[in-house]
Amino acid sequence: MPGFIDDLKQKVDTMLRLAVAGAIAAAAATVAFFCFAVSFFLWVQQNYSTLDAWMALGALFVVVAIVCGVVMIVVRKRRPTPRSEPKPREQPSAVSRLLQEPAVLLTGLQIMRLLGPRVIVPVILLGAVAGGMLMGRNGHSHRNAHESAEAHEQDQGFDAG
Which range marks the domain in which residue 107 is found? Predict the structure, then answer.
């Protein structure tokens, strides 16, 4: 177990370092982009006019937005590579969920207290026997065990004779 915990700590540490490095890189790229945008604005303002500088800066941001939108569409349309995933866990049955409800459990405890142990023990034993018989049935009839109806009829004819 200590190997598992150490491995988990190492993975979390690596992921945290990658996240911090990614955040720093994104912040640096954002600052660099805005520095270039301000420089571009000042250059256009010096050579042309302020209105032209604002229009050029607006066009630059529109181009960046279009490029980002195209990248988002391409990434969203790309299909992920199929991986062999483990089987999803089955959903608990309705009876299982019902038995986990606190209100149902409290009601059962109150009924047990009301009836007392002399009455409740035989009822529990009878319920256990009935449940065992129902679980042994497994919901399948004898006919479902055969491949076809003809095989079932042949088996029935053999049993009768």
Answer: 94-147
